[in-house]
């Protein structure tokens, strides 16, 4: 199943409730998926090496999702074999005092991956049109302005050689509840529990609507949104890897051409 199976058609209204978070496609279990995950991981490693050597383009993975959707897990497992020398991860939480003193895109722009690098944003600048809307800290008119700024920002990055891959990890409300309960009952995971997660859970429907608006307003042919069913972690990892590999393959990365001076040195050896 190709990655475009998860791609949303830009400009169209999306209903998240119509997408099954339990989907596993033609795969039935983790054991069946493992060979595919291994193959895709090896291919992604190869593509990263070429991208790093080429140093003409970069990749930015924007990873969004509800609490407990597995945003950190995707970076650890699906993208975990990327070489750290060419891979940087940035997490966006409540803005600091310094960040709040700048425009809402400032903190994201300064950590966009440089040429040759792959970056992953765990949450992102999209939080400024998601949590802000749900909690009414910005108006709908302000949100519309920010949608336009985001679209222009992404066009700027694209024109600078940044491939943007936007992934929403789609889980069910029941799955989230089970994960929250597990965090409370498992001593090794209790540190992950945040009381604020229960507060945010009460706004589940509002977040779904806010995300649906983001998908409609902030998609393009070159930077579409992907919705990945994430109730099954192994399927989530396979899907993200499939999307990632296809994204890098579409960039036509290539090793730099041979340097004639180096060829002369070789002749002298």
TrEMBL record:
It holds the Pfam family PPK2. Keywords: Coiled coil, Kinase, Transferase. Residues 29-253 form the Polyphosphate kinase-2-related domain. SUPFAM superfamilies: P-loop containing nucleoside triphosphate hydrolases. The keyword Kinase applies. Residues 30-57 form a coiled coil. One of its GO terms (molecular function) is kinase activity. InterPro entries: P-loop_NTPase, Polyphosphate_phosphotransfera, PPK2-rel_1, PPK2-related. This is Polyphosphate kinase 2 family protein. The lineage of its organism: Bacteria, Bacillati, Bacillota, Bacilli, Bacillales.
């Amino acid at each position: 199943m190709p990655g475009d199976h998860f791609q949303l058609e830009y400009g169209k209204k999306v209903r998240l409730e119509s997408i099954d978070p339990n989907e596993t496609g033609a795969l039935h279990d983790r054991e069946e998926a493992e060979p595919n995950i291994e193959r895709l991981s090896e291919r992604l490693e190869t593509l990263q090496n070429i991208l790093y050597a080429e140093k003409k383009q970069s990749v930015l993975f924007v990873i969004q999702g509800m609490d407990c959707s597995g945003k950190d897990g995707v970076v650890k497992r699906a993208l975990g074999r990327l070489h750290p020398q060419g891979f940087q991860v940035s997490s966006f939480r409540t803005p600091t005092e310094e960040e709040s003193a700048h425009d809402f895109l400032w903190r994201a722009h300064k950590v966009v991956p440089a040429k040759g690098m792959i970056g992953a944003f765990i949450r992102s600048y999209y939080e400024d049109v998601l949590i802000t809307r749900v909690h009414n800290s910005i108006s709908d008119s302000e949100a519309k302005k920010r949608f336009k700024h985001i679209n222009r920002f992404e066009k700027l990055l694209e024109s600078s050689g940044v491939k943007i891959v936007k992934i929403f990890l789609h889980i069910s409300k029941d799955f989230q509840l089970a994960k929250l309960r597990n965090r409370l009952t498992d001593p090794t995971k209790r540190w992950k529990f945040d009381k604020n997660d229960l507060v945010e859970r009460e706004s589940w429907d509002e977040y779904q609507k806010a995300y649906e608006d983001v998908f409609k307003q902030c998609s393009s042919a070159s930077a579409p949104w992907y919705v990945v069913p994430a109730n099954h972690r192994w399927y989530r990892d396979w899907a993200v890897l499939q999307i990632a590999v296809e994204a890098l393959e579409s960039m036509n990365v290539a090793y730099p051409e041979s340097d004639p001076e180096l060829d002369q040195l070789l002749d002298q050896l």
